[in-house]
Amino acid sequence: MSTGFDLGALLADRASERYGLHARHLNHQLPRMLHTIGFDKMYERAEGAHFWDAEGNDYLDMLAGFGVMGLGRHHPVVRRALHDVLDLSLPDLTRFDCAPLPGLLAERLLAHSPHLDRVHFGNSGAEAVETALKFARRATGRPRVLYCAHAFHGLTTGALSVNGEDCFRDGFAPLLPDTAVGLGDLDALERELGRGDVAALIVEPVQGKGVHAAPPGFLRAAQDLLHRRGALLIADEVQTGLGRTGDFYAYQHEEGVEPDLVCVAKALSGGYVPVSATLGRDWIFRKVYSSMDRVVVHSASFGSNAQAMAAGLAVLAVLDDEDLVGNARRTGALLKSRLAELVDRYEMLREVRGRGLMIGIEFGRPSSLALRGRWTMLQSARKGLFAQMVVVPLLQRHRILTQVSGDRLEVIKLIPPLIIGEEDVDRFVTAFTAVMDEAHSGGGLVWDFGRTLVRQAVLNR
């Protein structure tokens, strides 16, 4: 049966209108922003850690779709799994059966989390966080969730309540009862727990904004404080989980840490089908699903769908078969060390930090008079413009995609696919060195673009 629909023909006919379509029908500020910083490219295809434009130029992806593309783009094992699950014509999402794929994926995930017992599948990282917040409140009978300053966690209403950035929260009150504590501030945590109404602390073991790891010993000490007060520890591993930091979970870098609930998403999808998972202890799930009357008290219409489960199973198989967790640890150490060697060479390069293939490059105020004047010009217009000045030539002149790590931060975050190797490290370090050489020369196209950013920042005030 033919419907006359031809996706290839549609794209061939209309793909060139992509920016106009977004401007008219979607978030109109996105194409405007991309045009302003020169990121309005037209990419045609992708594979692994690279994608190509219409002219055949290749780009190195050091962003991985904000971490979604942990295996790179179009990994053949994940592609085959999705073809297979479609060809099987499974009776998916009947709602009145127990399909095998969710159980199999839960079993595989829990094998990496032996202290946890059960899994709830959803569709996004924010949904995994929402699930953890609900489960923690139900299990403890308490309303308030603590989070760390500068955390992210998501943009839906519950997740936004534990988001540590006012730029995301502004205009969306009232939110859930919450309180921020500093990452590593055990005194503040103990003080809040003393009020007796705290259900949980949710924490990213390595914060995405700024790439700040929890101080050594904090997670274990926080866990002990929480448990003594009858509260739970939630680990948000949406970006850090599945090998990103050189262990399967980032919390595993600290001995003895066993979160009560763990949120994963992003890389579990293989870059194809949205999927998330909230892993937890058996007693927590039994509190939520306390009777047959409450069997659907928390569910997701598309949760546990066959395509998502197949993608997740394929991803976990690839992580093991290709030792991508080990590769993240080794290649991340190489990249971090190569970049750290440049700190003494460039006065505006303050620090290189991170774990595995989650690396932050922070810039700071220079000491020399000439460069200090230019730095001050940028800072007076808008903090974060120098980092943007580095990101843009990396893309436009060296065809490497990166991101500034957060609003008004002078930090670039690198979260490439876990499959990158030494050749990709060489390419990035060479390009980064060239951009930093030009930035420290005090002139050239880098500073010309800086003046453009200043003008735009002033106009947007």
The biggest sheet, with number of strands, parallel, antiparallel or mixed sense and barrel status, is:
7 strands, mixed
Low-confidence stretches: none
- Give the helix proportion (percent range): 40-55%
Distance between the termini: 56 Å
How would you characterize the overall build of this protein?
Strand 16 (403-404) and strand 17 form a beta hairpin. The chain is an alpha/beta fold and 461 residues long. The longest helix is centred in the C-terminal third of the chain and has 20 residues, at 422-441. The strands form four sheets. It has a seven-stranded mixed beta sheet with strand order 4-12-11-10-7-5-6, with helices on both faces. The model has no long low-confidence stretch (mean pLDDT 92). The chain starts with 6 loop residues before the first helix and ends with a helix. The protein is globular and about 70 Å long. It is built from 17 helices and 17 strands. It has helices at 7-14, 18-25, 29-36, 76-87, 100-111, 125-140, 157-161, 166-169, 186-193, 218-228, 282-288, 306-321, 324-340, 369-381, 385-396, 422-441, 444-459; strands at residues 43-47, 50-53, 58-61, 118-122, 144-148, 178-181, 198-203, 206-207, 212-213, 232-236, 261-264, 276-280, 349-355, 358-363, 400-401, 403-404, 411-414. Helix 13 runs parallel beside helix 16 and helix 16 (422-441) packs across helix 17 (444-459).
